[in-house]
Amino acid sequence: MKIGILGAGQLGRMLALAGYPLGHSVVFFDQGAGESTTGIGTTHVGSFTDQRALSAFAKECDVVTYEFENVPCESAHFLSGLLPVYPPPRALEVSQDRIVEKTFVQNLGIATPRFEPASSESELLEACKKVGVPCIAKTRRFGYDGKGQARISNLEDVHAAWKALGGTPLIVEGFVQFSRELSVLAARDLHGDIAVYPLAHNEHVDGILHRTEIPAPELSPTLRQEAHAIATKILQELNYVGVLAIELFQVGDHLLVNEMAPRVHNSGHATIDGMVTSQFENHIRAITGMHLGSTEARARSVMYNLVGTLPDTTTISAIPDAKMHLYGKSPRAGRKLGHITLLNPSESTEIELKSRLLS
Ligand code: AMP
What we know:
By secondary structure, the chain is an alpha+beta fold. The protein has helices at residues 10-19, 51-59, 73-80, 89-95, 98-107, 121-131, 158-164, 221-237, 271-274, 279-287, 313-317, 347-358; strands at 2-6, 25-30, 42-45, 63-66, 115-118, 135-139, 149-152, 170-174, 180-188, 194-196, 200-205, 208-214, 242-251, 254-261, 301-307, 322-326, 336-343. Helices cover 30% and strands 28% of the residues.
């Protein structure tokens, strides 16, 4: 099949690389020519709101998917009138607005942090009083990697938070004293079957994912079951097709949903080397009508993101178990340039990798 991918970043690149062995080809659509997909497939450059450009793109494809969640919903709906679009555009609608998302999740009987909407400085003050301080104010839309957020420790911080966030509609969330951050990635195919990956334990630096370990260590069966139940309910409710990522806070032996991404996800990159079927392959399988592959772990996998600068690749390649993935992007502060996955690493291998990443 010819798969159309909205977005030409590293996720699009890795989706394409998973699609080729299955006999598919790929065409991208993005607002600029992506560095990550150069040489991987042709890119239609145009505005996501240009229906003529989208129609021309659709003519070349059998199915369309997306690699980022800020594709305008109207564009996804427009394309879905021309050919199948997976995941369903409703998944975009739900995940693009944090209030809509958390309301949707709560309506399924799933726990989230306490939250209140706020669209003015006085509403922000009231919301902080209702939720209680400390709390976090976040823009309802377009937040990523911790951007568009302000921590409010006491009510005197409200004015500065409102100014810092640009006066846009906000969500105020109670500050959760979580013990750790987890994510669950799950896929649903066109046959309605669901496969769930082992949970990932995620650690962030400066709001950007730094290290992920799959399967998350010391995970109780209760938590595993809870995560499976959460993923299954959401996938079924959305009549979802493809891979969905759900970010979770662990509090004691319970989970709260922080947010979800209707796409393949950074915390699942270790599935390429560490699981029987990668998240990218399962996404491609799902949207092309195939059955899902096993999500079982072949190894305990630890992934490090390469952010901002690239290490000396020859030095890294001297670690036999380090699987390196580079995205072809030019270095820039805060930019995700690649990742390295270690399989069944000893403590000393991880220490060695970290020292080589710093040298
Ligand atoms: P988000 O953009 O919602 O994924 O938030 C980015 C990061 O901020 C998360 O990975 C958490 O580390 C932290 N964070 C977000 N929401 C909360 C919350 N309600 N309580 C505590 N920490 C949070």
